[in-house]
Write a structure and sequence with these properties.
- With 184 residues, the chain is an alpha+beta fold.
- It has one domain (12-180): Alpha-Beta Complex (Peptide Deformylase), CATH 3.90.45.
- It has 3 helices and 6 strands; from the N terminus they run H-E-E-H-E-E-E-H-E.
- Strands 1, 2, 3, 4, 5 and 6 form a 6-stranded antiparallel beta sheet that branches.
- The radius of gyration is 16 Å and the shape is globular.
- The N and C termini lie far apart (40 Å).
- 35% of the residues are buried.
- It binds nickel (II) ion.
- Residues 110-112, 152, 156 line the site of nickel (II) ion.
């Protein structure tokens, strides 16, 4: 496995609509995903999309820790299935449907926008589907942090970065200053 360079805000690869993957089970896709996993883990991310490693393809990976799922569920008053954690998931050629009209705002960061955080509105609940590395269809309902991370990563495939989703640019801050923000 190889650590990949992460593209940063301003590089055109992050603004491009990524291309569909022809064959999710190909060795090239497998190798790319392996390297994305290593790169995400090294950088301490909870998700990464292929354009963030300069590959303009409709692939992202993510996981949800129990701690993040439960703290967001508690804040929003959501009921979680099980402990709320989601294992490392690979989604190739994903699609999202938004469920309901409820929107929540929460802090997000992005490996392509280091040291910053922003408060971003996202749909509370979604249903998503996509192909795994084995070519099998994955289909899940998600809410809270799980839904947020999938919407964030999906946006990367359409060339959208989280500041473009923000409604109050004053809520784009340095991560080091988050303690000064109002608790929510
Ligand atoms: Ni991101």
């Amino acid at each position: 496995m190889t650590l990949l360079k992460i593209s940063k805000m301003g590089h055109p690869v992050l603004w491009r609509k990524a291309d569909p993957v022809d064959n999710p089970s190909s060795p090239d896709v497998y190798n790319l995903v392996e390297n994305m996993i290593e790169t995400m883990n090294d950088a301490g991310g909870t998700g990464i999309a292929a354009p963030q490693v300069y590959e303009s393809l409709r692939i992202f990976i993510f996981f949800v820790s129990k701690v993040r799922a439960q703290s967001e569920a508690q804040r929003l008053g959501l009921e979680l299935e099980g402990d709320g954690s989601v294992p490392l998931t690979v989604l190739i050629n994903p699609e999202i449907d938004f469920i309901g009209e409820e929107i929540d705002e929460s802090w997000e960061g992005c490996l392509s926008i280091p040291n910053l955080m922003g408060k971003v509105p996202r749909y509370r609940s979604i249903r998503y589907r996509g192909y795994g590395l084995d070519g099998k269809l994955i289909e899940r309902d998600a809410s809270g942090f799980h839904a947020r991370v999938v919407q964030h990563e999906y946006d990367h495939l359409d060339g959208i970065l989280y500041p473009e989703r923000m409604t109050d640019i004053r809520q784009l801050i340095f991560s080091s200053e988050v303690a000064h923000q109002k608790p929510d």
